[in-house]
Amino acid sequence: MKPLIVFTALAFAAAAHSQTPQKSTAECGVKPSKYFDMSFREFDQTEGKGWREIKDQPGCDLAAADMIAQFREWMVDNAAGLDWHEAQGRAMAGQNDKALELFRRYLAFEKSKPAEHRSDENILKAEATVAFMEGDLNRLRDVRARLVVLPKPDGFDQGIARFKERYPNATPPTWPLNLGVVDGLIKCFGKPYAEAYGECRKSIAGN
Question: Are residues 105 and 132 in the same domain?
């Protein structure tokens, strides 16, 4: 073996042996909720905070990397939520082409999620909204038919019970979620989004 190759191989071997044993996220004190309350700049750029706070601990490089991945996923989810709210605002104001573009982008993002993180009711709400904006009543009715047969998630009733205890004067959500939104779009099909999402939705009992 040539001297340069031997030296390189030994260098890599030494680096591998010198790596610090990695601790678990719990041992590094990682609490994701703490970091999700931070701004992007605070999490990414502030010394002694965010992922750097984790990385500065011996053996916590991997835990810091995992937290960065979680924070990125959280940021992407929130950006998609902004797409939806921007789309609604533009649709309310009659900017239908731009609103439809954003509604479609939100729908594509929701569909791209892994199955374990996917919300079928959110997907169907988005599909119904896109169908409404595209003027496709048959597809809108098909979405409603799929929405009403969605199985109620485990723990939903217990969550409603807790909601009633915490907010006794508020109207609790009903299953399936977003049915009132879809019914409003059907009831006022062909009218402006602002009317369908506003008065038409609100006029339907229980939604």
Answer: no
Does the CA dihedral 132-136-142-143 come out positive or negative? negative
In this structure, what token pair is assigned to residue 84? 């939806």
Centre a 10 Å sphere on the Cβ of residue 148 and count the other Cβ atoms it contains: 13
- The greatest distance separating any two alpha carbons of the chain, rounded to the nearest whole angstrom, comes to 83
pTM above 0.85, yes or no: no
> Tokens 């701004």 identify what position?
39
Rounded to the nearest 10 degrees, what angle do helices 179-187 and 137-148 cross at? 150
**Domain ranges, residue 93:** 24-117
Kindly report the number of other CB atoms within 10 A of residue 115's CB atom: 6
| Number of domains, the chain | 2
Domain assignment present for 5: no
Q: What is the pLDDT of residues 116-152, one digit of tens each?
A: 888 899 999 999 999 999 999 999 999 999 999 999 9
Last-in-domain residue among 90, 117, 144: 117
